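Many introductory courses stop at the sequence. We go one step further.
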Amino acid sequence: MRFLVDNQLPSHLAGFLRDLGHDAIHVIDAKLDAADDRIVWAWAIAENRIVISKDEDFLFLANRSNDLGKFVWVRLGNCRKPALVDAFTKSIDAIVVAFDSGQRIVELS
């Protein structure tokens, strides 16, 4: 899977996903950290990347009719990196299956 990790989440998450064999980058690495959400979304679609964010704005973008983007909505509240990594460790296989089966939005809570 190809992921783009948004600003509200640490760049460490992108590294963790890379360690699992995924193609993951953080918005800082893509020089999109100051970009509007719509620009980030359009870039992710163009690059065939799944946005991972806590930002509900991406949920609205993903729910537009005829939109092609994919989104992991992280709903864990404030947590430290170990808790975030643990949540992804437990859920990454299900996340991959969900996207492979055609889902466009996956909630991680």
